[in-house]
Amino acid sequence: MDNIPISSEILNLFSTWADHFKNKLTETGVPGLIQKYKDIVDNVNNQKCPHGNDYQNCCGISYEYYNDISVRTALQILIDNLSDKESNQIIQEINSIDLIHKKLIIDNPVNYGKEYHLKKHKWWENLLPMGVVE
């Protein structure tokens, strides 16, 4: 993936986001966001908590999951606002992660009959993946 410089215009897209997020974005760039998204989906898939806690008592709680998965929202903001070339680079990088993430959502019995949410623009914000509890 070509380096996408984190300009002041990009940072302005996240003006209301927490400072620690903006600092991390500046530090690790788009590759860091993609890696964070991959790590979150891998942790959900393997039900592992990177903090060393029982998964469903930490990262596997819905509010923690929604907080963590906001990294996917950040990637979508970039996709929606960058050039076609840069957006397509991000899409190519996250496509396989999205497929795993969607499968985890589809396989969760609490989502049966709600698959229409997967067609929405920000599908990851609507349904919980397998292993995440409310």
Number of domains: 1
What is the CA-CA span between the terminal residues?
A: 36 Å
Structural class: mainly alpha
Mean pLDDT: 91
Low-confidence stretches: none
Give me the oligomer status: single chain
How many β-strands, per DSSP?
Answer: 0
Helix content: 55-70%
In angstroms, what is the radius of gyration? 15 Å
Strand residue content: under 5%
3D architecture notes:
- The structure is a single chain.
- With 134 residues, the protein is mainly alpha-helical.
- It has helices spanning 8-13, 19-46, 62-68, 70-81, 84-106.
Secondary structure: elements and pairs:
Blueprint: H1 8-13, H2 19-46, H3 62-68, H4 70-81, H5 84-106
Helix pairs in contact: 2-4, 2-5, 4-5
From the structure above, extract its key features.
134 residues; single chain; 57% helix; globular
Brief write-up:
The protein is an all-alpha fold. It has helices at residues 8-13, 19-46, 62-68, 70-81, 84-106. The chain is globular and about 40 Å long.
